[in-house]
């Protein structure tokens, strides 16, 4: 049960980071001009690309273990290896919360914080989302973001998302 609660809390991390959030914590957009771009093209999360529909994701990955709808515009699809966030009908990002599932540059949950800079470089930003410390890399050319949550100097979760997730939407 505790594991399920942790997974649900981590799934909410991506949702709570959206531009529609009312908390006063910073957004990755606050840092985009302070760091150089990092190529995140190879970060695919087991799918062809971000931006496809829920149906396209299911064609590529099969039926998820769990499907959650935390609000009207968001769907979380949980697979054995990744959790995907579908926002306004499009796959907006994915999350890795289990050890043994590496990023394209071989960083995974459980790795020491120092390994992140070894594999991705020192062009990152640090911010907090509530009590969670985040290290972020921005791919400005592909409008993609990777944030790694750090707990006790270890990678606790990895989130890759489209930067549009953080842009305030009009009329919502």
Automatic annotation (TrEMBL):
This is Uncharacterized protein. Residues 1-21 form the signal peptide. Keywords: Signal. It comes from Cohnella cholangitidis.
């Amino acid at each position: 049960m505790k594991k399920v609660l942790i997974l649900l809390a981590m799934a909410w991390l991506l949702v709570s980071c959206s531009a529609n959030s009312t908390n006063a914590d910073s957004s990755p957009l606050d840092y985009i001009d302070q760091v150089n771009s990092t190529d995140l093209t190879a970060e695919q999360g087991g799918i062809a690309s971000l931006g496809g529909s829920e149906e396209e994701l299911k064609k590529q990955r099969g039926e998820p273990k769990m499907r959650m709808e935390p609000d009207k515009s968001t769907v979380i699809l949980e697979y054995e290896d990744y959790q995907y966030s579908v926002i306004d009908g499009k796959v907006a990002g994915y999350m890795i919360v289990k050890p043994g599932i590496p990023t394209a540059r071989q960083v995974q949950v459980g790795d020491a914080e120092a390994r992140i800079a070894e594999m991705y470089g020192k062009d990152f930003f640090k911010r907090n989302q509530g009590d969670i410390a985040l290290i972020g890399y921005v791919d400005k050319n592909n409008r993609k973001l990777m944030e790694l949550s750090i707990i006790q100097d270890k990678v606790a979760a990895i989130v890759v998302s489209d930067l549009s997730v953080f842009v305030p939407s009009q009329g919502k």
